[in-house]
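Amino Acid Chain and Its Fold in Token Form
===========================================
What this section holds: a protein sequence and its matching fold, both as plain text.
Structure line: whole-number tokens from a learned vocabulary of local backbone shapes, matched to residues.
Purpose: to set a sequence beside its fold so the mapping can be learned.
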Amino acid sequence: MEIKEIIEKCASLDIYEVRCIADGYYEVVFYTKDTDQWNKLFAEILGLAVKPYGVVPKEEDITLTQKHGGLRENQTLFKREIDDTIMLAMFWPWQDEVRTTIKVVSVKK
């Protein structure tokens, strides 16, 4: 699975803002009211969330995501290992409760 494939799958959902499309990194903002749709899509792509919203993150997940902003209790993490790569998708809800940022990252093991 490559970032390009994930971007193609996300195209069917409502995106508020595309922030970055780069090699190994994809960042968009969506409307929080659509969270269930985004969760379903990423569960299909990467498997169930390893750190769902409202659950205290494990230290290993905090360390893994630190380079890209870390992980908090109110955030969601999807993670899938593919060969020598780890695909991460982090959902960061905004304080305004209207928007959520998604960061999709490809990390070499």
The chain has three helices and five strands. The two ends are 15 Å apart (CA to CA). The first helix runs from residue 3 to 10. Residues 3-108 form one domain.
